[in-house]
Amino acid sequence: MAGHSKFKNIMHRKGAQDKKRSAMFSKLSREITVAAKMGLPDPDMNARLRAAVLAAKAQSMPKDNIQRSIDKASASDAESYEEIRYEGFGPGGVSLIVEALSDNRNRTATNVRTAFSKNGGNLGAGGSVSHGFARLGLIEYGADAGDADKVLEAAIEAGADDVESDEDGHQIWTGLDGMHEVAKALEAALGEPTAVKLAWRPQTPVDVTEDDAAQLMKLIDTLDEDDDVETVWGNYQISDEVMEQLG
Asked: N or C: the chain end with fewer CB closer than 10 Å?
């Protein structure tokens, strides 16, 4: 088990504070609809839907919006979304994995490719960087769930594989098969998590200099602002000092 993690090296800006609220709700709604369409429309019987609803609640999405998104999955005119993964390289040799939900593959591919090319990156072929990541389950809690020792103890009891804690909260890593069982055990000890999801964890993090970090953040922000992009994962490490320089 790992303890305190100094770097924000997994996801870019948890909570994506710079997103507009309406755009964030749109992405959350889309994931809820897709999850409900792929399984039962009951969060208790559909692990992916439960994770999507938890993510929406964590961002204070109204209950009515959540229910409408679930109901939309069974509507005859419901839009059909495709899950797409893009892989590429950012400034400083950083590896990035972009996960998208799209109803127009050509539009999404063009937007993602343009974002990479205009911000010092290169979009690669499928599998070009994912071999450097592990596909795992990730359960997230805010700092109010408890201190690092409390969360670590709960994670061990629940059967988790690893824990990273910092001032912003806690990231609990699990194997894919046991993610939802671990999440249920943790909920009994720590309360409802802010997120339960499949994640890409880098096996060899890359330190990023101040010059590269500024352009990397611009690339990730551009990707994050695209309506079709759900999540951007990377193997970058940016020190607290460099983050402070970036403001």
From this structure: C
- Separation CA 183–CA 186 (nearest Å): 5
CATH no., domain 82-131+207-232: 3.30.70.980
Cα dihedral 17→48→235→241 (10° resolution): 30
pTM of the model: 0.84
Architecture of domain 21-72: Orthogonal Bundle (1.10)
Domain(s) labelled CATH 3.30.70.980 in the chain stretch across: 82-131+207-232, 133-202
CA gap 217, 144 in Å, rounded: 27
Q: How far apart are the first and last CA of the chain?
A: 32
Q: Say if CB 65 and CB 72 are below 8 A apart.
A: no
- Mind listing the pLDDT tens digit for each residue in 135-181? 999 999 999 999 999 999 999 999 999 999 988 899 999 999 999 89
Which backbone phi and psi does 187 adopt, to 5 degrees? -60, -35
How many CB atoms lie under 10 A from the CB of residue 127?
Answer: 9
The domain defined by 133-202 folds into Alpha-Beta Plaits (3.30.70)
pLDDT for 9: 45
Task: Please enumerate in sequence order all residues whose Cβ is within 8 A of that of 195, keeping only pairs 6 or more positions apart, or say none.
Answer: 51, 54, 55, 58, 138, 139, 140
